[in-house]
Amino acid sequence: MIEIAEVAKRGMTLIYGPPGSGKTSLAMRIASRIADKVLWVSTTEGPDLLREAARRVGVDPSKFDFYDFPRAFRQDIARYILDHIANYGAAVVDSVTGMATRQNIDVVTHSILYQIAKEKPIIVIADEDTPHVSYIADHVIHVWYRKNSIGHYIRYVQLEKSRTHPPGPRYIFDIIEGKGLLYFYPHGTRGPTQLVEEEKLGVTAPLKSVVCIHGERVGKVNALLEKIKDSALFIQIGHWTSFHGIELRDEQIYVVRTFHDLFKLYVNFMSGEIKAEFVVVGGLLNLPEEDRGEYVFILYSLLEFVKFLIFAAVGPREETVRLEKYCEEIVLA
């Protein structure tokens, strides 16, 4: 997501998306990187809430001067920014639709904010796509979320337009309390890796790769998983998993109740709080195809920390084969 912070260093950047998608959090992280002192004008939240929001995303609130303008005084916002922007390295307007009516938003945006942006970077936030502002802005960032088939909310961000960079990929991201934003993006293969013989599983596979262990009987799959259970973390997605019946300690099971839990898991591995040689994932087969890929996408990141990522599944061959496109080695139990 480096290109998003890069483009915002110059000109006017529009961040738009539905309420609760993470626009304000993203704007704070970006603004804190592009200026030492930021003027933040809000028509939606007061200074106390904004200072707390800054701390939540790991940003020093002292870098911001937060000002709350009720919508009744929207005509004063543009004048205030003009009078005070010289004292700041950047400005944020949250939201741009709160400082102008639909009838004159393009005039206010172009005649005031865009002119300021020629000298100082400006970030404007909107709850919806505003075509006039999108057209005027130098850069447009879309932030949104969706609720998937098992009720998990997934956040996305994408650079849709920039006068200095090509459009960017779609990132999956979330907020890590007190630390900042953690994001994942599509990437290529790891390239050549060392082939290792994993005697416990009876396979020879590239180190740090994905292995599928599939079978039609729970007992046969679990017999293989028993061999590695003492050095493995077992991830449960959904209510039923293929490793049901294996005796595990509480700290060996990680239950994914929200999509955010996958981000917390990555942070726990990164900090060393969790250590394992293997990560065994159960429950992927219960997800519809349109949702499964996003879980796999995040789970791949755990290969930074473990020897093998194992997707375990029990069911008829015509069912389990659907997972095999994600694996580099297949073990049939």
Protein model, in words:
This is AAA ATPase. Keywords: ATP-binding, Nucleotide-binding. Residues 9-148 form the AAA+ ATPase domain. InterPro entries: AAA+_ATPase, P-loop_NTPase. The chain has 333 residues and is of the alpha/beta class. It folds into 2 domains: 2-184, P-loop containing nucleotide triphosphate hydrolases (Rossmann fold); 195-332, P-loop containing nucleotide triphosphate hydrolases (Rossmann fold). Helices cover 28% and strands 29% of the residues. The chain contains 10 helices and 17 strands. The strands form 3 sheets. The chain has a 9-stranded mixed β-sheet, with helices on both faces. The mean pLDDT is 89.
Distance between the termini: 41 Å
Helix share, percent: 25-40%
Mean pLDDT comes to 89
Number of strands: 17
CATH architecture of the largest domain: 3-Layer(aba) Sandwich
Q: How many alpha or pi helices?
A: 10
Structural class: alpha/beta
Low-pLDDT parts are none
CATH superfamily of the largest domain: P-loop containing nucleotide triphosphate hydrolases
The domain tally reads: 2
Order of SSEs, N→C?
HEHEHEHEHEHEEEEEEEHEEHEHEHE
Choose one word for the global shape: elongated
Specify Rg, calculated over alpha carbons: 24 Å
Strand content: 25-35%
Largest sheet: 9 strands, mixed
**CATH topology (fold) name of the largest domain:** Rossmann fold
Q: What is the CATH domain class of the largest domain?
A: Alpha Beta
Order of strands, widest sheet: 3-2-4-5-1-6-7-8-9
